[in-house]
Design brief:
- The protein is an alpha+beta fold.
- Helix content is 28%, strand content 27%.
- Strands 1, 2, 3, 4 and 6 form a five-stranded antiparallel beta sheet that branches.
- β1 and β2 form a beta hairpin.
- The N and C termini lie far apart (71 Å).
- It is a single-pass membrane protein.
């Protein structure tokens, strides 16, 4: 009489094969999650800045975007970024000025802003007053690492937001700064 079923070796090899396939799928799934999170962060920033530009035009007032602490623009880039109508252009959210939107930031994202030490944007309703002395671009590194989907946003003089980066010959991400392509800094 012949017995039917599987041997222990067959069962173990099947279980090991399933575990290997699951491990490979999980690692590629983690990469997809990181890409999706980076894309969401990109979209959040573009939406946030475009909203500031459109509100300046619609309300015919100056709109400022910056990290706020105690209703004043701060250089602490880990704080949430705030859009507000800044009628007197003092980079402070005064009681008579309107808070438009807040973009929450996580402490594990790092930023590099230029010009240095001026982390704010000012949108003028006539769309010509985004000039020297106001941040014109910044690099965002999700979870503090270039490999996690870093991107560089540039805001031109009319307030238009766009991505600006490419890879150099070594495969490093670079962006145009002062007319030259330079490596990302995180």
């Amino acid at each position: 009489m012949k017995q039917q079923g599987f041997t222990m070796v067959e069962l173990l090899s099947t279980v090991i094969l399933i575990a290997l396939v699951a491990a490979m799928a999980a690692s590629s799934f983690a990469g997809l999650i990181a890409i999706a999170q980076s894309d969401r962060l990109k979209n959040d920033w573009v939406t946030f800045l475009n909203y500031g530009r459109s509100q300046a035009v619609l309300t015919q007032q100056i709109v400022t975007a910056c990290p706020l602490i105690n209703n004043e623009c701060s250089k602490d880039l880990t704080l949430p970024w705030t859009l507000f109508i800044d009628t007197n252009e003092n980079k402070k959210l005064d009681p008579d000025e309107e808070l438009l939107r807040v973009l929450e930031n996580t402490s594990d994202n790092t930023f590099s802003i230029y010009p240095k030490n001026q982390p704010y944007f000012k949108f003028h309703y006539a769309s010509y007053d985004l000039r020297m002395g106001h941040a014109r671009g910044f690099t965002v590194c999700p979870r503090g690492n270039i490999e996690n989907g870093a991107f560089h946003l540039k805001v031109n003089i009319t307030g238009r937001v766009r991505f600006q980066y490419k890879e150099n010959k070594q495969g490093l991400l670079v962006h145009k700064r002062n007319g030259r392509w330079q490596a990302f800094e995180c």
